[in-house]
Specification:
With 78 residues, the protein is α+β, with helices and mostly antiparallel strands. The protein contains 2 helices and 4 strands. The relative contact order is 0.34.
Length: 78
């Protein structure tokens, strides 16, 4: 039996347009605007690597439909 993963956002960098809405919406402040550019020429948001609670605020704040997925351990219980 494997240990369930901690909640975390999956950020699809190619879809990010650097609006920053997810960064502002995160109550734990675990998302930041990165310095690199994606293939479309936009800076993109990065996850700091820990602290996500899986609340989904970033997902709901993002205007890009495929830019963020939030994984919670509830998804993997069986």
């Amino acid at each position: 039996m494997t240990e369930p993963q901690k909640p975390h956002p999956e950020l699809i960098h190619l879809e990010c347009k650097a609006c920053g809405r997810c960064v502002e919406a995160c109550p734990r402040q675990v998302l930041v605007m990165g310095d690199e550019l994606n293939a479309r020429g936009y800076r993109f948001v990065v996850y700091l690597g820990e602290g996500c609670t899986g609340c989904g605020n970033c997902f709901y704040a993002c205007p890009e439909p495929y830019a963020i997925r939030v994984h919670t351990n509830r998804d993997e219980q069986a």
